Amino acid sequence: MFIWQDVFAFIIISGFKVTGTLGLILIYLGTTNDPITRSLIYARR
């Protein structure tokens, strides 16, 4: 039996995982390479 809800749930969960890891990588690259973003992040803390 092919259930569409399970497929959509799997796509949504996997999409959140992919975007979460990409966001973490982008944040890491921004903090290590860009001094402006680094100063902004440190100023927000």
List the helices and strands and how they pair.
Blueprint: H1 4-33, H2 35-44
Helix pairs in contact: 1-2
Transmembrane segments: 7-29
Keywords: Membrane, Transmembrane, Transmembrane helix
Q: What does this molecule look like?
A:
- This protein has 45 residues and is an all-alpha fold.
- The protein has one domain (2-44).
- It has two helices and no strands.
- The mean pLDDT is 75.
* Count of domains: 1
Q: What is the H/E order? A: HH
Name the average pLDDT. 75
Strand content: under 5%
User: Separation of termini?
Assistant: 51 Å
What profile does the largest beta sheet have?
none
Keywords: Membrane, Transmembrane, Transmembrane helix
Transmembrane segments: 7-29
Brief rundown of the structure:
The chain is mainly alpha-helical.
Structure characteristics:
single chain; 45 residues; mainly alpha; 2 helices; 0% strand; transmembrane; transmembrane helix; membrane
